[in-house]
Design a protein that fits this description.
Order of helices and strands: HHHHHHHHH
CATH class: Mainly Alpha
CATH topology: Hypothetical protein af1432
Helix content: 55-70%
Number of helices: 9
Number of domains: 1
Structural class: mainly alpha
Shape: globular
CATH architecture: Orthogonal Bundle
């Protein structure tokens, strides 16, 4: 799924998504989020396509492992590069929402982006294992025992939720495999 926006902005974002320090938060992740938005729309989820797709392009445009400010910096980048774009404020809001992935029940755009961003959790076991290894690589400076403890805490929190995904469409597509993948990773940690 793609939308029109200026080529210089697209080039800048592609450059960022392909920075050498990225392993999970890279062009492949962007492509998967865009494909997931397309799948969700095909499954009947309604959302405003242009701002949501633009937010996907911007949501990890600034990414430094261990930084607590990636989402804010990515939203600020969207505000700057989309200064004259009618969707600028909605794009920035959606990007900031990816810090928590807790959209309101009536936030169709936020639900779509959050669910698409988490689609990898419900991928095939092989793809999920690649994702998990890539996340570990991005956090390679964190000692193993600390990483395993923090990762277990994060993943375990997903399993305490009634649903990992906010939309019924995403639940139908990815909920069961996501729970299986997460449980398997926790057991391996």
């Amino acid at each position: 799924m793609d939308v029109e926006f200026p080529d210089p902005i697209r080039s800048e974002l592609i450059r960022r998504w392909n920075e050498p320090h990225r392993r999970h938060h890279d062009q492949r992740h962007l492509d998967e989020v865009l494909a997931a938005l397309d799948l969700l729309r095909g499954a009947g989820l309604e959302f405003d396509v242009r701002p949501t797709v633009l937010a996907a392009w911007f949501h990890d445009a600034v990414y430094k492992p261990l930084s607590p400010a990636n989402e804010k910096a990515s939203a600020d980048l969207a505000r700057r590069l989309l200064a004259d774009d009618d969707d600028r404020d909605e794009v920035a809001r959606l990007v900031e929402l990816t810090e928590t992935h807790t959209p309101a029940a009536d936030d169709a755009n936020g639900i779509a982006l959050s669910d698409a961003d988490f689609a990898v959790l419900g991928a095939s076991p092989q793809r999920y294992d690649e994702y998990a290894a890539n996340v570990r690589h991005e956090y390679r400076r964190v000692p193993g025992f600390v990483y395993r403890r923090k990762r277990r805490e994060l993943l375990s929190e997903f399993l305490t939720r009634d649903h990992i995904y906010a939309s019924q469409s995403a639940q139908d597509l990815w909920e069961s495999p996501a729970r299986a993948n997460i449980s398997r990773e926790i057991a391996a940690l």
